[in-house]
């Protein structure tokens, strides 16, 4: 097994004479590192400030200059958060976890399955169906809220968790993304070899195609979980304050007569933890898939 990037033999003689030392590699300049550090600081600071406020009392919000180090009130703030009778925060976390997990698993499964079909199988109307799926991406979600809500009322699903799960079990973006990736990542020869071995179409998808789509499926899983977890407008329309998602629970804290900022920031910090866990888990799959593609025999 050898890596894709290899050292140029002639470049060894001119070591230290310029960027041509390695094939395919570019040595970053100090300005690049400085730009990356600044971008990282600007991205991380809001999260750090959220943790600072979540660990202190309300007087830090208007303090000048504001404190930049965490305090010792995180446990008390989290305890008050879960004890708040108006937020239903524990139930909101559970509902968001159920909805986000179900939507993510379903979207990844159906999107990879449909993407494989559109990329590698031959059937009548394939192009027309793909264009129809792409056309659904052009319709803003806000335009479908009223008819979708009427359907939920007809099904008696309003204020129930399935109303934020069933309508989003598959997305046109996911199907199109998996179709584009499968067309490049899965060789036709590999599928033909599996057919010669007697594999059914679903067995080819499960044993051959799905492992090859793992990096793209991980990216789609991250996007889908984050989008469902952070969804606010549709749950606000179809659920009630007694059966909320986590975003509605935080919204209840913000709409209180007295805005307890430490409580709101503590809720936001707790609600961010599942997103970080999912990013770490799916991120390993992305890196693993990339590293497999970066090695050749």
Describe the structure.
This protein is mainly α and 297 residues long. 65% of the residues lie in helices and 1% in strands. It is built from 13 helices and two strands, in the order E-H-H-H-H-H-H-H-H-H-H-H-H-H-E. It has helices at 9-13, 30-54, 74-83, 89-120, 126-136, 145-154, 172-185, 188-196, 201-212, 214-230, 233-238, 246-254, 261-293; strands spanning 2-3, 295-296. A two-stranded antiparallel sheet has the order 1-2. Helix 2 runs antiparallel to helix 13. The longest helix is centred in the last third of the chain and has 33 residues, at 261-293. It is globular, with a radius of gyration of 25 Å. Residues 1-24 and 293-297 have low confidence and may be disordered.
Which terms would index this structure?
single chain; 297 residues; mainly alpha; two-stranded antiparallel ribbon; 13 helices; 65% helix; 1% strand
* H/E topology pattern: EHHHHHHHHHHHHHE
Main-sheet strand order equals 1-2
Q: Pick out the low-confidence regions.
A: 1-24, 293-297
Mind describing the biggest β-sheet?
A: 2 strands, antiparallel
By helix and strand content, what is the structural category?
A: mainly alpha
The total of beta strands comes to: 2
The mean pLDDT is 85
Strand content: under 5%
Work out the helicity level: 55-70%
Number of helices: 13
| Integer-rounded radius of gyration | 25 Å
Q: Distance N terminus to C terminus? A: 5 Å
Q: What's the quick description here?
A:
With 297 residues, the chain is an all-alpha fold.
Tell me the layout of helices and strands.
Elements (H helix, E strand, L loop, with lengths): L1 E2 L5 H5 L16 H25 L19 H10 L5 H32 L5 H11 L8 H10 L17 H14 L2 H9 L4 H12 L1 H17 L2 H6 L7 H9 L6 H33 L1 E2 L1
Helix pairs in contact: 2-13, 3-13, 4-7, 4-10, 4-12, 5-7, 8-9, 10-13, 12-13
């Amino acid at each position: 097994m050898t890596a894709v990037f290899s050292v140029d033999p002639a470049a060894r003689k001119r070591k230290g004479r310029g960027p041509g030392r390695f094939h395919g590699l570019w040595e970053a300049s100090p300005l690049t590192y400085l730009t990356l550090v600044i971008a990282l600081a600007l991205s991380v600071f809001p999260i750090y400030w959220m943790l600072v406020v979540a660990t202190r009392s309300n007087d830090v919000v208007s303090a000048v200059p504001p404190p930049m180090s965490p305090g010792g009130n995180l446990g008390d703030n989290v305890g008050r958060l879960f004890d708040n009778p108006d937020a239903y925060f524990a139930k909101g976390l559970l509902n968001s976890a159920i909805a986000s997990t179900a939507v993510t698993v379903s979207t990844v499964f159906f999107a990879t399955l449909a993407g494989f079909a559109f990329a590698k199988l031959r059937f009548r109307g394939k192009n027309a169906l793909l264009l129809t799926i792409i056309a659904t991406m052009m319709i803003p979600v806000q335009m479908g809220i009223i008819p979708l809500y009427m359907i939920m009322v007809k099904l008696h699903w309003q204020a129930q968790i399935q109303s934020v799960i069933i309508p989003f079990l598959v997305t046109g973006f996911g199907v199109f993304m998996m179709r584009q990736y499968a067309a490049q990542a899965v060789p036709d020869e590999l599928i033909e070899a599996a057919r010669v071995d007697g594999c059914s179409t679903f067995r080819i998808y499960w044993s051959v195609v799905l492992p090859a789509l793992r990096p793209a499926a991980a990216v789609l899983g991250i996007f889908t979980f984050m989008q469902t977890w952070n969804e606010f407008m549709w749950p606000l329309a179809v659920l009630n304050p007694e059966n909320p998602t986590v975003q509605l629970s935080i919204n209840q804290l913000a709409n209180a007569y007295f805005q307890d900022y430490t409580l709101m920031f503590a809720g936001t910090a707790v609600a961010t933890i599942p997103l970080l866990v999912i990013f770490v888990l799916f991120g390993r799959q992305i890196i693993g898939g990339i590293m497999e593609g970066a090695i050749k025999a």
